[in-house]
Write a structure and sequence with these properties.
alpha+beta
């Protein structure tokens, strides 16, 4: 079973440029985690899975901690999820800087971390 969050939006202060650390930027975060099937899922029991509200809380907390690298943010989120939810066997997180301050890039830039 895959539990996911797609396109959660945050205003955060990640980046190596001074302006990014002062003004911030808009980020989009998408996460998916693999959770083994259990009979409790069929029986409609919340404790049989991982709540996406709990996953979102971890993402939101980590996005508040400014870092130079999006890689560091993604790794920290992945490590917390693996350590806090023993039922999660693997997953991936994608963090996108919606308006990267790089001349010539009119789209987005980001990272994906598999854990």
């Amino acid at each position: 079973m895959v539990v996911f969050i797609k396109d959660a939006r945050f205003h955060a202060f990640h980046g190596v440029m001074e302006q990014e650390r002062k003004v911030g930027n808009e980020f989009s975060v998408s996460l998916s985690v693999d959770v083994p099937y259990s009979e409790g899922m069929k029986d409609d029991k919340l404790e049989a899975t991982v709540s996406y509200a709990d996953l979102y809380a971890i993402i939101a907390e980590e996005m508040k901690n400014p870092r130079n690298l999006l890689e560091a943010v993604a790794i920290s989120i992945g490590n917390r999820i693996i350590s806090e939810f023993e039922e999660v066997s693997s997953g991936s997180i994608t963090i996108v800087k919606v308006h990267p301050p790089i001349s010539g890039i009119s789209g987005e830039a980001g990272v994906t971390h598999y854990f």
